[in-house]
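Entry
Fold in token form

___
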Amino acid sequence: MGLLSSASFTTGRILVVDDDPGERDLIVSSLRADGHDVDASGSGFEALRLLGRQCYDLVVSNLMMPELDGPSLYSAVTYRWPISRPHFLFVSGLGNTSAYEGFLKVIHAPLLPKPFKIGALRRAIKRILQPLT
């Protein structure tokens, strides 16, 4: 099964949260090209507003953002929607993510280090969304 045909089996509703507009736009355009229904947010607070209006299968979030970082966003989502919370995939440009290793292990969320290839992003999303099919 090729990449294009398998993508149709793993499409979902995805929220991309990244304070870097260039990174955010790249992720959004790539996911839309794969057939996902994608919304975007430049901050954790804006993401919470969107999550309050729409259900998502997956949140692709930058780990480190001003005001409300990835772990704080995850905690807020888990508190507000303990049963129906979306899956999370974190991305980070940090060379050293050791401060977040404990958090990521506890919640079992994958981390994709920046810069990443779009193929790596697609594979990570497929692994996360595959159980939905």
